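Task: complex structure prediction.
Instruction: return C-alpha cells for all chains below.
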Amino acid sequence: MNFASDNSGPAHEQIIAAIAAANAGFSPSYGAEDAMSELRAHMRALFEAPAASIHLVATGTAANALALATLAQPWQTIYCTPLAHINCDECQAPEFYTGGSKLTLVGTDDKMTPDALDRAISAAGHGNVHVAQPGPVSLTQVTEMGRLYTLDELQALSGVAAAHGLPVHLDGARFANALVALGCSPAEMTWKAGIDAVSFGGTKNGCIGVEAVIFFNPEAAWEFELRRKRAAHLFSKHRFLSAQMGAYLADDLWLTSARAANAHGARLAQGLGALPDCHFLAEPQANMIFATLPRAAHQRLHAAGARYHLNGGPLETGPEDEPLPMRLVCDWSIEDSEIDRFIGIAQG
Amino acid sequence: MNFASDNSGPAHEQIIAAIAAANAGFSPSYGAEDAMSELRAHMRALFEAPAASIHLVATGTAANALALATLAQPWQTIYCTPLAHINCDECQAPEFYTGGSKLTLVGTDDKMTPDALDRAISAAGHGNVHVAQPGPVSLTQVTEMGRLYTLDELQALSGVAAAHGLPVHLDGARFANALVALGCSPAEMTWKAGIDAVSFGGTKNGCIGVEAVIFFNPEAAWEFELRRKRAAHLFSKHRFLSAQMGAYLADDLWLTSARAANAHGARLAQGLGALPDCHFLAEPQANMIFATLPRAAHQRLHAAGARYHLNGGPLETGPEDEPLPMRLVCDWSIEDSEIDRFIGIAQG
Amino acid sequence: MNFASDNSGPAHEQIIAAIAAANAGFSPSYGAEDAMSELRAHMRALFEAPAASIHLVATGTAANALALATLAQPWQTIYCTPLAHINCDECQAPEFYTGGSKLTLVGTDDKMTPDALDRAISAAGHGNVHVAQPGPVSLTQVTEMGRLYTLDELQALSGVAAAHGLPVHLDGARFANALVALGCSPAEMTWKAGIDAVSFGGTKNGCIGVEAVIFFNPEAAWEFELRRKRAAHLFSKHRFLSAQMGAYLADDLWLTSARAANAHGARLAQGLGALPDCHFLAEPQANMIFATLPRAAHQRLHAAGARYHLNGGPLETGPEDEPLPMRLVCDWSIEDSEIDRFIGIAQG
Amino acid sequence: MNFASDNSGPAHEQIIAAIAAANAGFSPSYGAEDAMSELRAHMRALFEAPAASIHLVATGTAANALALATLAQPWQTIYCTPLAHINCDECQAPEFYTGGSKLTLVGTDDKMTPDALDRAISAAGHGNVHVAQPGPVSLTQVTEMGRLYTLDELQALSGVAAAHGLPVHLDGARFANALVALGCSPAEMTWKAGIDAVSFGGTKNGCIGVEAVIFFNPEAAWEFELRRKRAAHLFSKHRFLSAQMGAYLADDLWLTSARAANAHGARLAQGLGALPDCHFLAEPQANMIFATLPRAAHQRLHAAGARYHLNGGPLETGPEDEPLPMRLVCDWSIEDSEIDRFIGIAQG
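Output:
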C-alpha cells in the first residue's frame, strides 16, 4: 500500500530493456548519438512543432530550473502559485539557476486565475528600476493538488502573460497524466494554448530518470545547451537518457502508463468518496488525492504498513475522529488490490 | 577502433543487471533506500574512513563543481593546472557553482609541482581585500594527459596546501585507473596523502552515469546535501544511482575494469612505441596516450574508420611526414584485436 | 511642500563642511585613514560594544544586502514583512548578493509579530533538503509605514529567532528617528534587544550618502570586507565616507536632525488629524505619515505644487470625495510654514 | 612625497564647491535631477555620440564590473591582460557581477597585441558547449603600467574583436590622462576606435568618487540601470554624483588636471632617467612610473618619508646596490618641489 509518491515506484520493463539495448558497443557522447536525433524528430512530430528544440536532463528540478533560467532575467520575478513545486520543493533551484530571480506567488493554492495573474503582473512596477521586473509565468499541469487546468484556462492565463509580453513555462512533471485526463493532443496542451516552454516529465511515469525540456521558439536552444552543460546536467553517456525517453514514447507507453495511474487514482477516489468520514481537499482529477480521514483511520492504515504523506498530526495522540489531511499518489504500478485494501482499512 | 573516450564505451553487464535488479517494486526516494546505506558502509570500509560522508551524483562535472563549491568561498581562487578538466571542459561549472571563484592556473601542463603551487599561493595576497583569496587546491588523478601523481607527489602537494591552511580536492574521474596503476589502497591515495574531498568516478570505467563525492571531514555533509538538491542533482529514483555504484564496487568490478583499460593502454603504448615515427607527448601511465603520428598515418587510420581526438591538423593537406598530435583513450571494453589493428594501420 | 522622501532633502551644512575639511592633502585609501579609526572607536563607545566591527558604504541597499549576504547562506530564506524595503524597493539586491536566498514574508504589513514569525520559521522545514532553510530575520526600524517596534517587541522577535538559532538584522535606514522616538540608547535598541547586525542609516537623515554596517559579533568582519570589496562598495577615497559619518555623529547632529524630522512629522500628523476627511492608515510615530485624503484635496495639493507619493488614483478623475491614500515623509529640513501650508490646502 | 596612488590625493576645490552648490533644498532622487539631464547632454556632445547612454556610479570597480556584466554572458570569458585591474585588484568583482564569467589572460603584461588576442579568441572553442564561450574584450587606457595604446593599436584590437563578433570595453580609470597624452578627441579614443563601452574615470583625477559608464549602443541602457540598482550602486542623493561629474567636465577641469598629473609624471621620469642607477620597467607615458632603484636609494627615500609601492624587497636587508622595483603615481596635486626632492634623495 505505497501511495507515497510516483517517484517511489519502479520503472517499466520496456525502459530497463531500452537501457540494456542501448548498451551495445561504442556510441558518440553528449547527445550526438543517433537515438537522440530520432527522438528529436519523434517529439517534434508528436508536438506538431517542427522547429522545437528538445533537450534531455535527468531530474524534474533540472528541467524546471534550467528552463526558467533561460526564460528569465535575474532581475525579474517568476509568477507561480504558493504550492508550486518550484516554490516548495526545489530548495531554491530556480533562484540559484536564474541568478537571483524572485518568485511572486499568485493565488492561495495550486491554481491561479487569469484575474489574479493580471493583478500580480500589473502590480509589479514594470519599468520601475526599484522593483522586480515581470518575468515568466510558470504553470503546473497536473497541479500539485492533483487538479487540472482546462485548455480554456491555460489559454486565458497565457493570454494574460502575452498581453504583458511575458513567456509561459509549463511544469509538466505529470504531463502525460494531464494529457490523458483532458483527452487532448500535446500541441493543444502546449503551444496551441500559448505555452512557450515545457518540462516534459518521464521520471514520475515509469522512467528511471529523464525529463525533456521543449522550447517552441528554437532561439533559446543554444543558451539552454550552455546552461545545461555548466550546470553539469549534460550526460556524457547521454544514450541512456535518449534510450529511456525513446522507449517511453514508443508504442504509447507514456499514455498507457498515465492512463493506468489515473485509473488507479479514480478507483481510490471512488472508494474514499464512499466513506462518510473522508473529505476531499481538492477534486481528484488525475493520480493524486488530497483528502482527510479521521485519526483512527490513519492509525489503522499506518499499523497496516500503508505509506503516504500525512500532512498534519500528530498521528498517535488526539481525538479519534479528528480529521487529518493526507496526500495519496497512485503510481502506474500500484495494484488494484492494494487500493481496495487501503479503502477497506480506512473504512474500518 | 574507437579510442575517442572512455565515456563512449558501454556499461558493464553487471551494471545493467544491477539496475534491473533494483527495479523491484516501491522504494524510498532521494537516497533513503537501503542500498544507499549499505553502499555508504561499504565505501567507508573501503576507504578506511568510518566518518566519511558519501554522496552520489550522475556526472563528473557535478561531482567536481559541487565538491569545490562546498570547499571554496566565492571570493577565493582554486588552484589547478591549465589542462585541468575543471578549467578546460566544464563550461565554467566551478565558477557557476562557487558563485564566482577564480581558477589560478599552476604550472604549464597537466601536473603541478609543490614549488609552483607554493609560489602561486604565496603570490595570492592572503588578507589583501583587493585580490582573490587562496582557496582549495584541485588535483587530477589520472591527469588529463594520462599521467599519475605518485603518493609522494600527492603528499608534497597536500603538504603545501596544508601549510597555507587550504583543503585539497582530488578529481578522480579515473580514480580506479590510477589506483591499480599505483598499486596502493584507496586510503593511501586520498586521506593518507592529505586529500580532503574526492570525486570518485564510475562513469568512465563502465557505469552508466554515477560518481561519488567523498568528504573525509563529515562537517561538509549537510552543506553538500543542500547544494546538490538546489543544483537539481538529487535524484528522486536514487536507487538507480546506488545500484550502479554498488555493482561497480562489488566483486572488485571497478578494479578489474580499470586493470583491463590500463592493460589496453599499455598494449597500445607498446605497439606505438615500436613505430619509428611515433613520439609520445607524455609518458603513458594508465589508459590514455598522447603522441604524434605522421599525417599519412592519420590519413590511413581515418580512412579505416578509427575514432580518436586529432589535436592538430588539417588532416587532409600538408606534408605526409608532418607529425600531428593525437589523444587515444582505451576503454575497458576495447578489444586487443582493435588495438593491434590500429597499430598495424599506423605502421603502414 | 516636498514630502516625497527624506532622500530628496539636502545634507546638513556640517556634513558639507566635513567633506571640505577632509579634503586636505594626501590620505591613505580604502579606509586606512585616521578618521576611520576614530570613527570606529566613537561608534563602539556609542553602542557600548567594544568589539563591534564597523564598516561604511554609500547606500542603504548596499548596507542591507551586504549585511544579509554575510548572515545568510544561499539556500536559506530571510524573514521579513511584505512591505520591507528589502522586499519591495531594492530590485532583488538581497537575492543577488546572497546568491539566491529567498525572502519569506511574515505578516501582512510593515510589522511582524513573534507568533507569526515563529509559525513561519517552524513551517520552513529545517533539515528537509527539499525546502529553503531558515535564515536571518530582518526587521525595519522605523518601519516602512512609519511605525516603531517597542523594545519589548524587538526583544520578543529576537527571542523567537534565537530560539531557532537564527541571527537578526535591523534595517535602520531611519535608525536615529526610531531612537529619539523611543528615547532609548543605541545599545538598548540593538544588541541588548538581541540584534546581531545593523544597517545604520545616515543618508536619509542629512548626509550625502553614507551608512554604517555594524556586526556585534566581530567574526563576520573579514567576510564582510571581502564581500564589500568584490561588490565594488569599498571607496578608494574612503575619507569622504568617514568624514560624513564622523560629522553626523559629532555634537549629536544625528539626534538633533532626527528630532527635527520627527517633530515635523508630529506637526503634520496633528494638522491632518484635525481634518474630518483625513484618515490615518498607520499610527504616525516618526517622520512618515500614511493617510487618506479626498481626491479633491489631492487635486488642490498637486495644483499647488506639493510633492509626495500618491498611492492610488487616478488623481484627475473620479468622485471628489473618494479617499485616496498617500505617503508623506518629513525631511529634517522641511519648514514648519510648508507643513502648515500643506495642511491649509488639504483642508480646502 | 606621496606617490602611493592618485586615489590618495585630494579633490579639486571646484568639485567640493559643486557639491556644496548642489546642496540647495529638495531635489528629485535617483538620477532624476536636472543636473543629470544636463550632464547627459554634455557628455553626448563631448563624445559626439548623441544616442549614447550615460550612467554614474561611485567607484571604478563598479563601473568596470557592471559594464562587463552588461556585455558578457555568464558562460563567456572576458579577454584582458594579466595585469588588468579587473584581474588583479577587484577581488573578483567581474566574476561576481557576471555570474561566473571567466577571465582569459592575453599577453604577459599590461598590453595585448592583436595577434595574441586573435589567438586567444580563436582557441576558445566558440560553439563547443564544453568550454567558455568568447565574450567581451576589456582594454585599459592608461594601462596598469602607465603605458598607452595608440589609436592604431586600439583600432587593430577592436578590429580583432569585431571580426569575432565581440564587444570591446575600455577601462578608463585614467581616461583623461590618456586623452591628453594622445592629444585626440574622446570620440577618437572610443567609438571611432571601435570601443563599445567605457568606464570613464573621475575619482583618480580629482573627484571625490564618481565614474561614468558610457554605452555607445543605447540598447544596453535599461539592463544597466537594473543591474546598477540591484547592485546597490544607484544613489538616492544622486545629485552629488552628477554635481561632481558636471564640475569635472566644466571649464576643462578634467583636462587641466590630467595635464598637470602627466606633467608631474614627465618631470619625475626625466629626473629619474638621469640617474645612472634607475632603470625603467615600462616607458612612462602618463602619470605612472615603474622603475628600479638600488636598495640604498629606497632606504633613503623611506627614511625621508616618501610613500610609494615598493614591489620587491625586503627593504631593510640585502645588497645596497640590488635594484628593487617600485611604482610611482603622480597625483594632479603633487608639487614640483616634492618631485625634485624625491629625485634628489634617490640620487643620494
